Every structure is written in C-alpha cells, then in structure tokens.
Amino acid sequence: MALRLVADFDLRKDVLPWLRAQRTAAAGARGGGAGILENNYESLRVLNVERNGNIIYTYKDDKGNVVFGLCDCRTRQNEHLYTFEKDLQVVSCSVNSERTLLAASLVQSTKEGRRNELQPGSKCLTLLVEIHPVNNVKVLKAVDSYIWVQFLYPHVEGHPLPENHLLLISEEKYIEQFHIQVIQEDGNRVVIKNSGHLPKERVAEDFVWAQWDMSEQRLYYIDLKKSRSILKCIQFYADENFNLMFEAPLDILLNDSGFNLVNFGCADLQNQEKLSKHLTLCVFTNHTGSLCVCYSPKFDSWEQITYSVFYFHKGYSKTFTAALESADSYVTKGITFLNLDYYVAVYLPGHFLHLLSIQHPDLICHSLFLSGNTEVVDMLPHSPLQSLSGSLVLDWCSGKLYRALLNQSYLLQFLWNTRLDCEKMAVLHCVLSCGRDSRFLEAKIIQWISETISSCHSFDLIQEFIIASSYWSIYPETSNIDKLLPYSSVLTWNTEIPGITLVTEEIALPLMKVHSFKGYWEKLNSNLEYVKYSEPHLLYNNSVVRREWHNLISEEKTGERRSVVYVRSILDNAVKVISNLEARRLEPRLTPLFQEEDNHQRLLMGLMVSELKDHLLRHLQGVEKKRIDQMVLDYVSKLLDLICQILETSWTKHNLHPCILHFHRRASAAEFAVFHIMTRILEATNSLFLPLPPGFHTLHTILGVHCLPLHNLLHYIDNGVLLLTETAVTRLMKDLDNTEKNEKLKFSIIVRLPPLIGQKICRLWDHPMSSNIISRNHVKRLLQNYKKQPRSSVIDKSSCSVEFLPLNYFIEILTDIESSSQVLYSFEGHDNVDAKFVEEAALKHTTMLLGL
C-alpha cells in the first residue's frame, strides 16, 4: 500500500473501555445499571479535534441524554465534560484550551415531533457552558439555521488566558467572533464575566464555502463577487486581533445558494450517500510556504473524473482527467484529498490513487498515478475521510484518527516491480522525500539501481538518484533552496502517463493584504515574489565550473598557471569537502578511493564549492555566510558520498578484493560487472560535470585494462571514457613484463599520455622503446629553438664510433648545441640524457627495425 495510516486515536479502543468501566462503577454504587448501554454504543462518535490534539466525542446514555467527553491525546485519559438532560442531536462542539468552557450547538432530535423544549420556536440552540465546575449555561444563539462553533487556540504557554475567543459559523453565511472574559471565584471556580453582554464582531459574511485550519488558526472562505469566486484567508492571533491575509480569484463554478464547511467538526448532518454528487474543495499548506487549493467538481460521467490543483505558490493550476478502469464501475464515493506535507494524495476508492508533488509539480513524471490494482487503490477506508492539519486524517464513521504517511517499504517494493519509467521516476522521489532513515533508503535504492540500471530508457537512473538524493539531504534546512538547487536531472517530459491527461494553466497570484510577514506568510510571500520577479533560470548548474576547469587544465598543459593563491584556495575547498565527507563516515572504505591526489578532480571539486557558494550567497537572502558555507560543503560531500556508495555496493555484492589493482591476473565476471557500473557512473557525472572521488579514474582504468581487448581499451581511452592517470600507468609498467602482447599494450598507453606524465613513465620501462621516446623528446627540446650555423663539411671520423655519416652529422649538431648552451638536459631518472644517449638509442632502434 503506497499510503500507510497509523492510528493516533480509535474511539472504540481509547474511549469505550473507559465508558464501560464508568458504567460498571456507577452500577456497583447504585446497585443497578447506569451510564451508556451496550445498544447505545452506536451513538458514540467524534465531534471535533482541537488544536492541541484533544478529541471531543459524544454519546447518549440509557436515558437518551446527550453526554460530552474529551480524550487527552497526550495522556490518553478520558474526561466527562457535560451532560444535556434532553434528547438532542449535536451539530457542533468545542472546548477552550483550559477546559473551563464548552460551546455546543444542538437541534431537536429528529425522532421527536416537537421543537426544542429549551427554546421554543427555534430549530438550533447554541449554548456556552461553564464546566469548571459545571455551573451556568448561556444561550448564544437560538435560530432556525444551523450553527457551528469553534474556540480559538492561541500560541500561548503558561497561565490561563483571561479572555477566550469563540467563532460562530452560521448556515445564514456569516461568521462571528465572541470575546469571552472569565474570572475565578471561590478558589478555582471559573465563571464568565459579564455573561449578559458578550462582545462580538463579524469576521466574514456572504460566503459559500469555508474551511478551518485548526493547527495554524486560519479561516479560509470563498465569497462570490459578480459570479466570480474569491478565496480569502483570515489569520487569528494570540490576542483578539485577526487579519485578512490575502484574496485570490478561483476559476471554479460555485452556486450562490450553496453552503459547504470543511473541518468545522463532524459532518454527520451532511448526507454522505450523496457525496459523489457534490464538489470537493479544500486548501492545503505546509511549512515551506506552499498554498494549494484542491478541487473536484460534481460528477457528470462514470467513465472519467476531473480534479484540479491550484498551485498558488507556483502561479499555475493543473487539471487532471483520470479514466476510470471500466464504464460500469459505479462511483459510490467522492474524491478524497489528503495532505501529506510534500505531497497531496487524490484518492477515489476502488479506482485510483494520485500522489501529486507540491514543491515540484512542473513535470507530471514527478507525481505518482496508481490505478487498476485493487491492492493499490483500496488501501484506505471507503468511508468519508477528512484531512486535518499535519497529515492527520479523520474517519468520521469509525471514529479513528490516523496519521497518513508514505509507505516506504511498499514504495521500495513497487520500485522493483514497476516497468514504467514515469513510475520509477515518481516513486524514486516519493521514497527520498520521506526523509526517515535516509541511509537505509539510499542503500535500498542503490541496490535496485545496480540490478535494473539498463531497464530505464527515459532518463539516467544514477544521475537522477544523485541529484534527487543530494537535494533532499539539504532541502529541509533552508527555505527557497528548492528554487536554487536542481531537484531532478530531467528538465522536460513529453511521454504520456497511462490513464491520465493533464492541462496546465497560469493563474492570478494571491493579492497579499498585509505588508509585514512572519513565519509561513513570509515564506508564501517569498514564493509569490519569486514567481513575479525572479529570473527564469535560477537553478544551479555547473556550466561556469566546466568552463573554468577547462581553462585551468589548459593552463597546466601550457605551463601558464594563474595566481598560485587562487589555485591553492580552490584546492583547499576540495580538502574541506573530503574532510567533511570522511568525518561523517562510520565504517572503513572497501574501495581504493581517496588514496591519491588526483588534482584534476580536486580542482573540479573545489571549483564547484566556490561557484555554488557564490550562487547561494547571491540569491539566498537573510542566511548567514557561515551557514551557506557548511550547506555547500554538505551538498558536494553528499554528491561524492552517493557515488562512493554506489561503487561500494557493487564492490561488496561481487566480493572484490584489492588484489584487482594488480595487472598480472585475468579479469573475472565480477570485475566486468563493477567496470560496467563505473562506466555508467562516469556517463552520469560527465553530462552534469560533477566531480568524482579521487582515485576513481585509476580504478576504472585498471578494470578497463583487465576487462577489455586492446582495440576496445584504446577506443575507450581515445574517446575519453577511460582517463590515463599517473598512478594507473605506473602500476601497469611495473606489473607487466615485456612479452610481445604487453609491449604492444605499454607502447599504446605511453603514446597516449600527456607529455609531462609520459616523461615520468618512460623511465619506469627498461626497454629500447622507452629510450627511443626519451631520445625523441630530448631532440625535440634541443632543436625547437635551433638556428642553423655555417659549419665545416669535414667530419672528424676519429671521434665517431659508427661509420654512418647521417647519424654522425646529426649527433655532432646535438653535441654542439649542448656545449654552446652549456646546459645538460637531464631527464628525470637519467643522469646523462645527452647526444651520446640519443646516438645509442638510435642505433638500438635501427637494429630492432632491421631485425639484426
């Protein structure tokens, strides 16, 4: 199951045993039955979930009286709140944070044909009760329309507040706020001050839809202006103040005569059997400053269903049309939208589950659409579900409160089984976004990549994993980082997703109504400002690093190196990255990495640190430099660590041993497998121009020499797949003897080496071929500035040991140049590389060519 529902509260388990114990105790005290009867247990239901997690429930006792109780979410203790000694039906109920006041809205029980006896002539009675201890009851409203009540829960710790604030939501389409002052009398008895006159004010009116966010104390509502739906939000604060935060036009059709409430307590008064015929609308936010409105219109077809998500923090909406599996599959339940923090789940029981990315909804491949498989689409209860704040889900019918989570184990298993590239992409991101035990998840994903690396054709698995995992490792630390660091290696996706079509449209941004922002509102405003004003491409890429790295390598080849201080600072960055990486490692490495300098990779590493740091400093406002420095080190370290993990997983799987670093052995199937995975890693990092761990190219080249025939090996080298490092070639020269096959290999390698490395390597090979190369280089240096001078045509034969005039003449010229410049061109490893050495090398080479 892609979603896992973890029960936080179960009415039957957390309340019923207490009620039975209460009944037994009361029966023993009175010698008879009392309390709630077994046949009245069906009247037990949840009424409300308050901000602090306390759950208010109601039931009817054996006399038909309405009883209110509360379950403390922290202690799991139950508490009786109040009993109305009338057979009434509860519309709504709320308790203040100190549990001293209870507000309730009730109507006459439908089985009684008469009006409410407490207030003749009214259908709905709204009461405010002092319950610490039970004392006075005040009538707030007695009207013919339904009323819902909700106490505000400010962020205030410590002593009780002297004033409480209560919202009254009327079916007549207005919302009022009552200000209730309380005082203590006779010790701890809490009573309402001036109960005869409670100050109140209108908060909203003429709305057709409203939603309460209990966690953030926000009221969302929609009113119609000239047949246009306008979404508004009111933020309530710890004092009695509240602000209208924004207005946003919504392109949806709402009926002026309609009325719909979300998260204002129990929905029992709505006809649940007709849910599928009504629209579904809800607002979701999260700590990153996202603002999503999820909307599903009335059903007009049993063949397909349409739903939309308005991503206000991104400036566009996406409308999805999902094909139902079969035309005769009757839709008995409406769509359910669930808030999963970084995802919105769209669930239609028996038909499909769609996990939509909130932070990165641009490409449809980053969202997971599952349909058809009953195990996948029937994992949630079929009864109506309501998504509350903080991924809480309430099943009103069963009285269960769940916490909805992405099911890591199921998603990992699904990753192994799916054949669709779009599902692989989506599930990969779903798993990484879970954020729990990231090391374990990465190990599982790497294992999957190692087994299925060739089965994905739409994108590079290694590339996507490295980019996505590095992103998720740093994303929770700082807001707005999602706009600056790449989330995916895929920039476009044109492949259709089976079973679903998509239309994307730009939408008007919310108009913020205040000018000072804190917390969530600051982040939302930052997101909106980004959509309005930012550059189109702020995501970091390594294009500047690529250019600068090539410049440094070119300068190294020509000997024109820029400031030593600059290069040293770049290399110091690399040292910091490697130190940061090694400090976090708990186990010793199995692979022979980080055992050599590899200055080219260290330059690339250091340049990436420098450029990424500059990028974040330019665009991350309000974040101190020290924090950005550490963030960059962590990010680049993570990139390298993931590459090491992939290689170590393959190394361990194939049980390789450090002895593979020697050349005097034949390659095994295991070495072929590791060589293949290293080649894929190289392909993935090359296109993104990412650094590799020092020693990677040496190990890759050694495995290449083991595994490839000579012509393939040289093809890999010539095309830049294998890079000849000094460490690898040095080991090759020392390990291999001078058989004909090995001589051919050595010579083919030497002629492909950069001149500086080639000069060092030649001295390690005691062979006429290396002497020839040394001589050629010596002659090239001597003659590169040589100017021909008039000289005698007579050669002093007495000084010549060989009767070969062209050679004698050439050696004499070299000798003259050496003596005139008074410089002995020594070659590393040879004390006297001079004209005499060149002559001997030439004779040996000629002898070999003539077969003498």
From TrEMBL:
The lineage of its organism: Eukaryota, Metazoa, Chordata, Craniata, Vertebrata. CDD domains: GSAP. Pfam families: GSAP-16. It comes from the Eukaryota. Residues 640-747 form the Gamma-secretase-activating protein C-terminal domain. This is Gamma-secretase-activating protein. The gene is LOC101391109.
